Amino acid sequence: MQQAKVLTKGTGNFFFGFHDLVAWNAAGDKLLALRIDNILTPPNPDVPCDIGYVNGDNTFVKLGETYAYNYPQGARQQWVGNTDLFVVNDRINGAWRSKVYNTATGECMELEHPTHVITDDGWAFGLDYARLYRVGGYGYTGLPDAYANVHTPENSGIVKHNIHTKAASLLISIKEVANFQMNPNLGNHHYLTHLLLNPSQNRIAFLHRYKLKDGGETTRLMTIGTDGKNLKCLAAGFLSHFDWKDDTHIAIWGRTGSGVEKLRGSLLYKLMPSGLIAQAKKLVKKLMYRKPKGAAARPNSAFNWLLFKDENNAEAGYLAKGIINEDGHPMFCPANRDWMVCDNYPDENGIRTLFLFQYSTQKKIDLGTYKMIDTKPDLQVSKAFLDGVDKGIMKAFSLEQMAFTRSGLHCDLHPRWKKDGTMVAFDSIHEGHRLIYGFDVSDIVLKNGTTATHS
Protein backbone atom coordinates (compact mmCIF):
# COMPACT_ATOMS: atom_id res chain seq x y z
CA MET A 1 0.00 0.00 0.00
CA GLN A 2 1.24 3.48 -0.87
CA GLN A 3 1.76 6.08 1.85
CA ALA A 4 0.87 9.77 1.78
CA LYS A 5 3.75 12.15 1.17
CA VAL A 6 4.15 15.82 1.96
CA LEU A 7 3.77 18.00 -1.14
CA THR A 8 4.63 21.36 0.42
CA LYS A 9 8.15 22.35 1.48
CA GLY A 10 9.02 25.52 3.39
CA THR A 11 8.17 27.35 6.59
CA GLY A 12 4.66 28.10 7.78
CA ASN A 13 1.35 26.36 7.18
CA PHE A 14 0.08 25.34 3.76
CA PHE A 15 -3.53 24.64 2.82
CA PHE A 16 -5.83 24.44 -0.16
CA GLY A 17 -9.35 24.27 1.22
CA PHE A 18 -12.42 22.47 -0.04
CA HIS A 19 -12.95 19.10 -1.67
CA ASP A 20 -14.72 20.24 -4.84
CA LEU A 21 -11.91 21.66 -6.99
CA VAL A 22 -9.07 20.10 -8.99
CA ALA A 23 -5.91 21.42 -7.34
CA TRP A 24 -3.42 20.49 -10.09
CA ASN A 25 -3.18 22.17 -13.48
CA ALA A 26 -3.94 20.11 -16.60
CA ALA A 27 -0.27 19.23 -17.11
CA GLY A 28 -0.09 18.00 -13.53
CA ASP A 29 3.12 19.89 -12.70
CA LYS A 30 1.68 22.73 -10.59
CA LEU A 31 -0.43 22.39 -7.43
CA LEU A 32 -2.29 25.46 -6.17
CA ALA A 33 -1.73 26.30 -2.52
CA LEU A 34 -2.08 29.01 0.13
CA ARG A 35 0.54 29.71 2.84
CA ILE A 36 0.30 31.52 6.17
CA ASP A 37 2.33 31.65 9.39
CA ASN A 38 -0.34 31.66 12.11
CA ILE A 39 -3.39 29.37 12.02
CA LEU A 40 -4.33 29.66 15.72
CA THR A 41 -7.27 32.03 15.19
CA PRO A 42 -9.93 32.71 12.56
CA PRO A 43 -8.59 34.86 9.70
CA ASN A 44 -7.40 38.31 10.73
CA PRO A 45 -8.84 40.82 8.22
CA ASP A 46 -5.55 42.73 8.36
CA VAL A 47 -3.30 39.74 7.70
CA PRO A 48 -3.26 38.23 4.17
CA CYS A 49 -2.13 34.75 3.22
CA ASP A 50 0.27 33.99 0.38
CA ILE A 51 -1.09 32.57 -2.87
CA GLY A 52 0.83 30.55 -5.42
CA TYR A 53 1.60 27.03 -6.48
CA VAL A 54 3.83 24.10 -5.62
CA ASN A 55 6.13 23.03 -8.44
CA GLY A 56 7.70 19.66 -9.27
CA ASP A 57 10.20 19.68 -6.40
CA ASN A 58 7.47 20.63 -3.87
CA THR A 59 8.76 24.20 -3.55
CA PHE A 60 6.14 26.90 -3.06
CA VAL A 61 6.20 29.67 -5.68
CA LYS A 62 4.50 32.79 -4.31
CA LEU A 63 2.68 34.98 -6.83
CA GLY A 64 0.76 37.29 -4.52
CA GLU A 65 -1.36 37.68 -1.39
CA THR A 66 -5.08 37.63 -0.61
CA TYR A 67 -7.35 38.84 2.17
CA ALA A 68 -10.28 36.79 0.88
CA TYR A 69 -9.75 33.41 2.51
CA ASN A 70 -11.12 31.09 5.14
CA TYR A 71 -9.58 27.82 6.26
CA PRO A 72 -12.36 25.41 5.18
CA GLN A 73 -12.62 26.69 1.58
CA GLY A 74 -9.40 28.61 1.03
CA ALA A 75 -9.67 31.53 -1.40
CA ARG A 76 -11.45 29.44 -4.07
CA GLN A 77 -8.20 29.35 -6.06
CA GLN A 78 -8.71 27.25 -9.21
CA TRP A 79 -7.31 26.70 -12.67
CA VAL A 80 -9.05 28.10 -15.74
CA GLY A 81 -9.62 25.09 -17.99
CA ASN A 82 -6.45 23.56 -19.44
CA THR A 83 -4.48 26.81 -19.20
CA ASP A 84 -1.86 27.88 -16.68
CA LEU A 85 -4.10 30.73 -15.55
CA PHE A 86 -5.76 30.52 -12.17
CA VAL A 87 -8.40 32.66 -10.51
CA VAL A 88 -8.46 33.53 -6.80
CA ASN A 89 -10.63 35.75 -4.61
CA ASP A 90 -9.32 38.89 -2.91
CA ARG A 91 -10.44 42.15 -1.31
CA ILE A 92 -10.07 44.89 -3.92
CA ASN A 93 -11.13 48.52 -3.39
CA GLY A 94 -13.36 47.66 -0.44
CA ALA A 95 -15.21 44.77 -2.13
CA TRP A 96 -14.87 41.01 -2.45
CA ARG A 97 -13.65 40.45 -5.98
CA SER A 98 -11.17 38.15 -7.74
CA LYS A 99 -7.92 38.12 -9.66
CA VAL A 100 -6.48 36.05 -12.49
CA TYR A 101 -2.80 35.06 -12.30
CA ASN A 102 -0.69 33.86 -15.19
CA THR A 103 1.78 31.32 -13.77
CA ALA A 104 3.95 31.54 -16.89
CA THR A 105 4.50 35.30 -16.69
CA GLY A 106 3.51 36.18 -13.13
CA GLU A 107 1.09 38.80 -14.45
CA CYS A 108 -2.11 39.56 -12.54
CA MET A 109 -5.46 40.90 -13.78
CA GLU A 110 -8.17 42.22 -11.45
CA LEU A 111 -11.84 41.32 -11.90
CA GLU A 112 -14.93 43.20 -10.73
CA HIS A 113 -16.63 40.21 -9.10
CA PRO A 114 -15.77 37.23 -6.87
CA THR A 115 -15.46 33.68 -8.18
CA HIS A 116 -16.62 30.43 -6.57
CA VAL A 117 -16.55 28.19 -9.64
CA ILE A 118 -15.48 28.79 -13.22
CA THR A 119 -16.08 27.01 -16.53
CA ASP A 120 -13.24 26.03 -18.84
CA ASP A 121 -14.13 28.89 -21.21
CA GLY A 122 -13.99 31.54 -18.49
CA TRP A 123 -17.53 32.02 -17.19
CA ALA A 124 -17.22 32.58 -13.44
CA PHE A 125 -19.94 32.37 -10.78
CA GLY A 126 -19.56 34.06 -7.40
CA LEU A 127 -21.42 34.45 -4.10
CA ASP A 128 -22.06 37.16 -1.52
CA TYR A 129 -19.16 36.39 0.85
CA ALA A 130 -19.97 39.22 3.25
CA ARG A 131 -23.42 37.71 3.81
CA LEU A 132 -21.97 34.21 4.11
CA TYR A 133 -19.61 35.41 6.83
CA ARG A 134 -22.39 37.15 8.78
CA VAL A 135 -24.71 34.12 8.81
CA GLY A 136 -21.98 31.74 9.92
CA GLY A 137 -21.10 30.28 6.52
CA TYR A 138 -17.80 30.17 4.67
CA GLY A 139 -17.42 33.84 3.91
CA TYR A 140 -14.53 36.27 4.32
CA THR A 141 -13.68 38.50 7.27
CA GLY A 142 -13.59 42.27 7.05
CA LEU A 143 -16.54 43.68 5.07
CA PRO A 144 -20.15 44.25 6.23
CA ASP A 145 -23.20 42.53 4.76
CA ALA A 146 -24.89 45.24 2.69
CA TYR A 147 -28.24 43.46 3.09
CA ALA A 148 -27.99 42.43 6.75
CA ASN A 149 -31.50 43.74 7.48
CA VAL A 150 -33.12 42.06 4.46
CA HIS A 151 -34.06 38.41 4.81
CA THR A 152 -34.46 37.79 1.06
CA PRO A 153 -32.47 40.46 -0.83
CA GLU A 154 -33.18 40.92 -4.54
CA ASN A 155 -29.74 42.35 -5.35
CA SER A 156 -27.68 39.59 -3.77
CA GLY A 157 -27.29 36.03 -5.00
CA ILE A 158 -25.19 34.27 -7.63
CA VAL A 159 -23.26 36.65 -9.88
CA LYS A 160 -22.12 35.53 -13.33
CA HIS A 161 -19.16 37.19 -15.06
CA ASN A 162 -16.74 36.44 -17.85
CA ILE A 163 -13.04 36.80 -17.06
CA HIS A 164 -12.18 37.54 -20.71
CA THR A 165 -14.93 39.90 -21.84
CA LYS A 166 -15.85 41.28 -18.36
CA ALA A 167 -19.56 40.81 -19.12
CA ALA A 168 -21.50 40.41 -15.85
CA SER A 169 -25.03 39.91 -14.52
CA LEU A 170 -26.92 38.53 -11.54
CA LEU A 171 -27.68 34.92 -12.48
CA ILE A 172 -30.32 34.59 -9.76
CA SER A 173 -31.12 36.48 -6.56
CA ILE A 174 -31.65 35.14 -3.06
CA LYS A 175 -35.20 36.50 -3.27
CA GLU A 176 -35.97 34.52 -6.44
CA VAL A 177 -34.67 31.31 -4.86
CA ALA A 178 -36.56 31.89 -1.60
CA ASN A 179 -39.80 32.42 -3.54
CA PHE A 180 -39.37 29.21 -5.53
CA GLN A 181 -41.72 26.42 -4.36
CA MET A 182 -41.90 27.73 -0.77
CA ASN A 183 -43.14 30.53 1.43
CA PRO A 184 -40.05 32.68 2.10
CA ASN A 185 -41.59 34.01 5.33
CA LEU A 186 -41.07 30.62 6.97
CA GLY A 187 -37.38 31.44 7.35
CA ASN A 188 -35.02 34.31 8.11
CA HIS A 189 -31.58 35.29 6.83
CA HIS A 190 -31.78 33.32 3.60
CA TYR A 191 -28.46 32.70 1.84
CA LEU A 192 -26.90 30.69 -1.00
CA THR A 193 -23.72 28.66 -0.70
CA HIS A 194 -21.61 25.77 -2.09
CA LEU A 195 -21.81 26.32 -5.86
CA LEU A 196 -20.69 23.32 -7.90
CA LEU A 197 -20.68 22.82 -11.69
CA ASN A 198 -21.78 19.50 -13.19
CA PRO A 199 -19.22 17.66 -15.38
CA SER A 200 -20.59 19.18 -18.60
CA GLN A 201 -20.54 22.64 -16.99
CA ASN A 202 -24.06 23.54 -18.11
CA ARG A 203 -25.73 23.34 -14.66
CA ILE A 204 -24.82 24.52 -11.19
CA ALA A 205 -25.84 22.84 -7.95
CA PHE A 206 -26.02 24.94 -4.79
CA LEU A 207 -27.49 24.99 -1.30
CA HIS A 208 -30.25 27.39 -0.25
CA ARG A 209 -30.24 27.79 3.53
CA TYR A 210 -32.29 29.82 5.96
CA LYS A 211 -32.69 30.19 9.72
CA LEU A 212 -35.81 29.03 11.59
CA LYS A 213 -37.49 30.41 14.68
CA ASP A 214 -36.63 27.27 16.66
CA GLY A 215 -32.94 28.17 16.27
CA GLY A 216 -32.32 25.56 13.56
CA GLU A 217 -31.60 25.81 9.89
CA THR A 218 -33.09 24.16 6.80
CA THR A 219 -31.24 23.38 3.60
CA ARG A 220 -32.59 22.96 0.07
CA LEU A 221 -30.55 21.31 -2.67
CA MET A 222 -31.03 23.41 -5.81
CA THR A 223 -29.78 23.40 -9.39
CA ILE A 224 -29.90 25.97 -12.16
CA GLY A 225 -28.61 26.25 -15.73
CA THR A 226 -25.49 28.33 -16.27
CA ASP A 227 -27.75 30.46 -18.47
CA GLY A 228 -29.95 31.26 -15.44
CA LYS A 229 -32.83 29.08 -16.62
CA ASN A 230 -34.58 25.97 -15.32
CA LEU A 231 -34.23 26.41 -11.56
CA LYS A 232 -35.01 23.20 -9.63
CA CYS A 233 -35.37 22.15 -6.00
CA LEU A 234 -34.32 18.52 -5.67
CA ALA A 235 -34.78 18.05 -1.92
CA ALA A 236 -35.09 19.81 1.44
CA GLY A 237 -34.12 18.85 4.97
CA PHE A 238 -30.80 18.39 6.76
CA LEU A 239 -28.43 18.31 3.79
CA SER A 240 -24.66 18.61 3.92
CA HIS A 241 -21.70 17.89 1.63
CA PHE A 242 -22.29 16.82 -1.95
CA ASP A 243 -20.88 16.31 -5.42
CA TRP A 244 -22.25 15.56 -8.88
CA LYS A 245 -22.07 11.80 -9.50
CA ASP A 246 -22.59 12.54 -13.19
CA ASP A 247 -24.40 15.19 -15.25
CA THR A 248 -27.83 14.23 -13.92
CA HIS A 249 -27.30 12.84 -10.40
CA ILE A 250 -26.06 14.38 -7.15
CA ALA A 251 -24.78 12.47 -4.12
CA ILE A 252 -25.35 14.26 -0.80
CA TRP A 253 -25.15 13.38 2.88
CA GLY A 254 -28.31 14.11 4.80
CA ARG A 255 -31.83 13.37 5.91
CA THR A 256 -35.16 14.36 4.41
CA GLY A 257 -38.74 13.92 5.63
CA SER A 258 -37.83 13.37 9.29
CA GLY A 259 -40.09 14.11 12.25
CA VAL A 260 -38.31 17.41 12.77
CA GLU A 261 -38.90 18.46 9.15
CA LYS A 262 -42.56 17.41 9.37
CA LEU A 263 -42.98 19.42 12.56
CA ARG A 264 -41.46 22.49 10.89
CA GLY A 265 -43.84 22.16 7.94
CA SER A 266 -46.97 21.83 10.06
CA LEU A 267 -49.64 24.43 10.82
CA LEU A 268 -48.97 23.89 14.54
CA TYR A 269 -45.35 24.98 14.04
CA LYS A 270 -46.43 28.18 12.32
CA LEU A 271 -48.75 29.08 15.21
CA MET A 272 -46.52 28.12 18.14
CA PRO A 273 -44.38 30.68 20.04
CA SER A 274 -40.61 30.34 19.54
CA GLY A 275 -40.00 29.03 23.08
CA LEU A 276 -42.47 26.18 22.71
CA ILE A 277 -41.10 25.35 19.27
CA ALA A 278 -37.59 24.86 20.65
CA GLN A 279 -38.95 22.49 23.34
CA ALA A 280 -41.05 20.57 20.81
CA LYS A 281 -38.03 20.10 18.55
CA LYS A 282 -35.98 18.69 21.43
CA LEU A 283 -38.79 16.25 22.28
CA VAL A 284 -39.13 15.03 18.69
CA LYS A 285 -35.36 14.50 18.43
CA LYS A 286 -35.34 12.59 21.73
CA LEU A 287 -38.12 10.28 20.55
CA MET A 288 -36.56 9.80 17.11
CA TYR A 289 -33.03 9.05 18.19
CA ARG A 290 -33.34 7.42 21.61
CA LYS A 291 -31.45 4.16 21.97
CA PRO A 292 -33.35 1.04 23.17
CA LYS A 293 -32.30 -0.23 26.59
CA GLY A 294 -29.24 -2.42 26.36
CA ALA A 295 -28.63 -1.53 22.71
CA ALA A 296 -25.11 -0.86 21.53
CA ALA A 297 -24.18 2.42 19.90
CA ARG A 298 -24.85 2.42 16.15
CA PRO A 299 -24.81 4.90 13.28
CA ASN A 300 -27.85 7.16 13.05
CA SER A 301 -29.91 5.42 10.35
CA ALA A 302 -31.94 8.58 9.76
CA PHE A 303 -28.94 9.95 7.85
CA ASN A 304 -27.39 8.46 4.73
CA TRP A 305 -25.51 9.16 1.53
CA LEU A 306 -28.46 9.98 -0.72
CA LEU A 307 -28.53 10.04 -4.52
CA PHE A 308 -30.91 12.47 -6.24
CA LYS A 309 -31.72 12.84 -9.92
CA ASP A 310 -31.59 16.43 -11.15
CA GLU A 311 -35.33 17.01 -11.13
CA ASN A 312 -37.86 18.81 -8.92
CA ASN A 313 -38.80 16.96 -5.71
CA ALA A 314 -36.58 14.06 -6.67
CA GLU A 315 -37.03 10.67 -5.05
CA ALA A 316 -34.02 9.75 -2.95
CA GLY A 317 -31.89 6.76 -3.82
CA TYR A 318 -28.75 5.62 -2.02
CA LEU A 319 -25.11 6.01 -2.94
CA ALA A 320 -23.48 3.64 -0.46
CA LYS A 321 -26.11 2.33 1.95
CA GLY A 322 -24.53 0.26 4.70
CA ILE A 323 -21.07 1.00 3.29
CA ILE A 324 -20.43 4.64 4.24
CA ASN A 325 -22.33 5.53 7.40
CA GLU A 326 -21.12 9.02 8.21
CA ASP A 327 -20.74 12.49 6.75
CA GLY A 328 -17.58 13.51 4.92
CA HIS A 329 -16.25 15.48 1.98
CA PRO A 330 -16.75 13.66 -1.36
CA MET A 331 -15.24 14.26 -4.76
CA PHE A 332 -15.83 12.04 -7.80
CA CYS A 333 -12.84 11.38 -10.03
CA PRO A 334 -12.79 13.66 -13.13
CA ALA A 335 -11.28 10.85 -15.23
CA ASN A 336 -13.63 8.08 -14.01
CA ARG A 337 -16.68 9.11 -12.00
CA ASP A 338 -17.24 5.54 -10.84
CA TRP A 339 -14.61 6.40 -8.19
CA MET A 340 -15.06 8.80 -5.27
CA VAL A 341 -12.52 9.97 -2.71
CA CYS A 342 -13.83 11.03 0.68
CA ASP A 343 -12.94 11.49 4.34
CA ASN A 344 -14.86 11.52 7.60
CA TYR A 345 -14.97 13.61 10.74
CA PRO A 346 -12.68 12.83 13.72
CA ASP A 347 -13.68 9.84 15.83
CA GLU A 348 -13.49 9.77 19.66
CA ASN A 349 -9.69 9.61 19.34
CA GLY A 350 -9.51 12.58 16.97
CA ILE A 351 -8.68 10.41 13.94
CA ARG A 352 -9.92 11.07 10.40
CA THR A 353 -9.90 8.40 7.69
CA LEU A 354 -9.16 8.98 4.01
CA PHE A 355 -10.78 6.45 1.68
CA LEU A 356 -11.83 5.59 -1.86
CA PHE A 357 -15.26 4.30 -2.86
CA GLN A 358 -16.21 2.57 -6.12
CA TYR A 359 -19.89 2.95 -6.93
CA SER A 360 -20.26 0.03 -9.35
CA THR A 361 -18.85 -2.52 -6.89
CA GLN A 362 -19.92 -0.73 -3.67
CA LYS A 363 -16.36 -1.24 -2.46
CA LYS A 364 -14.73 1.07 0.12
CA ILE A 365 -10.93 1.16 0.38
CA ASP A 366 -9.28 2.89 3.34
CA LEU A 367 -6.09 4.75 2.41
CA GLY A 368 -4.86 6.20 5.69
CA THR A 369 -5.72 7.71 9.07
CA TYR A 370 -4.68 11.16 10.29
CA LYS A 371 -5.00 12.54 13.81
CA MET A 372 -6.04 16.04 14.78
CA ILE A 373 -3.84 17.90 17.29
CA ASP A 374 -4.88 19.10 20.74
CA THR A 375 -3.95 22.79 20.30
CA LYS A 376 -6.88 25.15 20.90
CA PRO A 377 -7.38 28.67 19.51
CA ASP A 378 -6.77 31.77 21.62
CA LEU A 379 -10.37 32.78 22.44
CA GLN A 380 -9.57 36.35 23.46
CA VAL A 381 -7.78 37.05 20.20
CA SER A 382 -10.32 35.07 18.16
CA LYS A 383 -13.30 37.00 19.50
CA ALA A 384 -12.27 40.17 17.66
CA PHE A 385 -12.14 38.31 14.34
CA LEU A 386 -15.71 37.02 14.78
CA ASP A 387 -17.34 40.37 15.52
CA GLY A 388 -19.21 40.48 12.23
CA VAL A 389 -20.94 37.12 12.72
CA ASP A 390 -24.64 37.45 13.55
CA LYS A 391 -25.27 37.45 17.33
CA GLY A 392 -27.83 34.67 16.99
CA ILE A 393 -25.23 32.45 15.33
CA MET A 394 -22.68 33.14 18.05
CA LYS A 395 -25.27 32.33 20.69
CA ALA A 396 -26.20 29.05 19.00
CA PHE A 397 -22.65 27.82 18.40
CA SER A 398 -20.59 29.46 21.20
CA LEU A 399 -17.33 31.34 20.90
CA GLU A 400 -15.30 28.19 21.54
CA GLN A 401 -16.90 26.26 18.68
CA MET A 402 -16.82 29.13 16.18
CA ALA A 403 -13.21 30.04 17.03
CA PHE A 404 -12.05 26.46 16.55
CA THR A 405 -14.01 25.61 13.40
CA ARG A 406 -13.02 28.87 11.69
CA SER A 407 -9.34 28.61 12.70
CA GLY A 408 -6.76 26.63 10.77
CA LEU A 409 -6.57 24.15 13.66
CA HIS A 410 -9.81 22.57 12.46
CA CYS A 411 -8.38 20.74 9.49
CA ASP A 412 -10.70 18.45 7.54
CA LEU A 413 -8.84 16.39 4.96
CA HIS A 414 -11.01 17.72 2.11
CA PRO A 415 -9.50 15.36 -0.50
CA ARG A 416 -9.44 16.38 -4.18
CA TRP A 417 -8.36 14.60 -7.34
CA LYS A 418 -5.67 15.15 -9.87
CA LYS A 419 -7.36 15.55 -13.24
CA ASP A 420 -6.08 12.24 -14.63
CA GLY A 421 -7.23 10.30 -11.55
CA THR A 422 -3.78 9.09 -10.52
CA MET A 423 -3.43 11.06 -7.28
CA VAL A 424 -5.43 12.80 -4.58
CA ALA A 425 -4.28 15.72 -2.45
CA PHE A 426 -5.53 16.59 1.03
CA ASP A 427 -4.87 18.98 3.91
CA SER A 428 -3.82 17.57 7.28
CA ILE A 429 -2.41 18.77 10.59
CA HIS A 430 -1.33 15.43 12.09
CA GLU A 431 2.38 16.37 12.07
CA GLY A 432 1.80 19.59 14.02
CA HIS A 433 1.67 21.99 11.07
CA ARG A 434 -1.02 22.31 8.45
CA LEU A 435 0.41 20.84 5.25
CA ILE A 436 -0.77 19.51 1.89
CA TYR A 437 -0.23 15.81 1.26
CA GLY A 438 -0.51 13.62 -1.83
CA PHE A 439 -1.58 10.01 -2.17
CA ASP A 440 -0.83 7.98 -5.30
CA VAL A 441 -3.99 5.94 -6.04
CA SER A 442 -3.15 4.97 -9.64
CA ASP A 443 -2.62 1.27 -8.83
CA ILE A 444 -6.03 1.02 -7.17
CA VAL A 445 -8.02 2.94 -9.77
CA LEU A 446 -6.33 1.47 -12.83
CA LYS A 447 -6.66 -2.11 -11.57
CA ASN A 448 -10.35 -1.63 -10.83
CA GLY A 449 -11.35 0.73 -13.60
CA THR A 450 -14.99 -0.25 -14.07
CA THR A 451 -17.22 2.66 -15.02
CA ALA A 452 -20.82 2.65 -13.80
CA THR A 453 -23.69 4.28 -15.63
CA HIS A 454 -27.21 5.31 -14.58
CA SER A 455 -30.30 4.25 -16.44
Q: What topology does this entry show?
A:
Layout lengths: L4 E2 L6 E3 L15 E6 L12 E6 L5 E7 L11 E2 L5 E8 L2 E8 L5 E4 L5 E2 L4 E4 L2 H6 L22 E6 L5 E6 H5 L9 E10 L5 E9 L5 E9 L6 E15 L2 E7 L3 H6 L2 H5 L2 H16 L14 E6 L7 E2 L12 E2 L6 E5 L7 E8 L4 E9 L7 H6 L6 H16 L9 E2 L5 E6 L6 E6 L1 H6 L8
Antiparallel strand pairs: 1-27, 2-3, 3-4, 4-5, 6-7, 7-8, 8-9, 10-11, 11-12, 12-13, 14-15, 15-16, 16-17, 17-18, 18-19, 19-20, 21-22, 22-23, 23-24, 25-26, 26-27
Written account of the structure:
With 455 residues, the protein is an alpha+beta fold. 15% of the residues lie in helices and 35% in strands. It contains 8 helices and 27 strands. β25 (416-417) and β26 form a beta hairpin.
How would you concisely characterize the structure shown here?
The protein is α+β, with helices and mostly antiparallel strands and about 450 residues long.
Q: Strand share of the residues?
A: 35-45%
Please give the number of β-strands.
27
Tell the overall outline.
globular
Which percent range fits the helix content? 10-25%
- The order of strands across the largest sheet is 14-15-16-17-18-19-20
Distance between the termini: 35 Å
Q: Radius of gyration in whole Å, from Cα?
A: 21 Å
Compute the number of helices: 8
The class by helix and strand makeup works out as: alpha+beta
